[in-house]
Amino acid sequence: MAEKKKEGRKIIAQNRKAHHDYFVEETYEAGIALFGTEVKSLRAGQVNLKDSYCEIREGELFATGVHISPYEKGNVFNRDPLRDRKLLMHRREIMKLHGLVARDGYTLVPLSLYFSGSNVKVEVGLCKGKKLYDKRDAEAKRQADRDIERYSKSRGRDE
């Protein structure tokens, strides 16, 4: 019998700013509808997720603000780099997310873009916005962890 080959994730881009600006409550995996030249640009790593978000329109999920640079050899086949791209999820998942976003003040943010085998997938996070003091607390905790790590390394060398 032929054994099914397991393909790993090859991360194309991550939205690091999302973890700074939001509390990520849950993550979902979605496919994304792309054209050929866009996939070639992704393989070259020419994508930016920095100011992107997702919205639900007429029962469909769209990623807005995902910048995929035009493929340099694509000529007339290139698309608009900032066009809205349809995300592919089951309708019941989209309706569940729509209810949460509309009622509880959540937002949907693309966290990462990756290849799963030959398919391009998007990791969508159900996020709640951080306040300024939350960001300061997170930064203070990171700085304290760095100081502790630095101190423990220097103590290890002295002994």
Describe this structure in words.
The chain has helices at residues 16-21, 36-43, 91-104, 132-158, and strands at residues 9-14, 22-32, 47-48, 53-57, 60-64, 67-68, 85-88, 107-116, 119-129. The chain is α+β, with helices and mostly antiparallel strands and 159 residues long. The strands form two sheets. The protein has a seven-stranded antiparallel β-sheet with strand order 1-8-9-2-7-5-4. A hairpin with a 2-residue loop joins strand 4 (53-57) and strand 5 (60-64).
Give the proportion of residues in helices.
Answer: 25-40%
Residue stretches low in confidence (pLDDT < 50, at least 5 long) are 1-5
Largest sheet: 7 strands, antiparallel
Q: Termini separation (Å)?
A: 58 Å
Number of discrete helical segments: 4
Secondary-structure-based class equals alpha+beta
**Average pLDDT value?**
83
What is the gyration radius calculated from CA atoms? 19 Å
The arrangement of helices and strands along the chain is EHEHEEEEEHEEH
- Proportion of beta-strand residues: 35-45%
What's the total number of strands? 9
- General form: globular
Biggest sheet strand order reads 1-8-9-2-7-5-4
Detail the topology: elements first, then pairings.
Layout: E1 9-14, H1 16-21, E2 22-32, H2 36-43, E3 47-48, E4 53-57, E5 60-64, E6 67-68, E7 85-88, H3 91-104, E8 107-116, E9 119-129, H4 132-158
Antiparallel strand pairs: 1-8, 2-7, 2-9, 3-6, 4-5, 5-7, 8-9
